Hints:
This protein is mainly α. The chain is built from eight helices and no strands.
Amino acid sequence: MKRIVFLSLMFSVILAACGSASIPVPASSSDTYVSSNLPVDYENALSVRNQLALGTLLIDDTPQAVTAEQAANLILLWQALRGTQLSGAAAQEEVSALLTQIEAALTAGQVAAIHEMKLTQADMQDWAAANGITLGGGTGQPGSGQGMSPEARATRQAAEGKTGASGNPSGGGNTVLIDAVIAYLQTRLP
């Protein structure tokens, strides 16, 4: 199973690196990934991408917390997803394939726990506020973050209230949230 996930991930990364014949989807576009386990049909529901990300953070310190073995697999998938966002050139099929793999890497109990949270935009704002992050806005000054690692850039942007190059609250919020998930998963590694 690990080998299949790894090979699928590598195939997605190679496709992204080589470019694709499909029309690029900008990073700030809305998600079209649909999950039978995580609905988005309730008021102010987060996208499945954000439910998976925020939910992963919120199940920490519960019996459903991500294991070290899961973290090793999930970190690669979330990094690939972040790469598609930062490039802005990934086809929606690539993004959906990565989100499918992320969801499949979680146990049924973990996905059920995330589902039961019924995460909303208010939950995302609460998480951001609790972590000193301002979603949306930002001045987008040129050159901010050049030469920095993605983690350091995300931390700096979050500290300054910048959540993405476009200033789009959902696109930038996704990047900050994904970076937080990656940082969390790194703490779960042995």
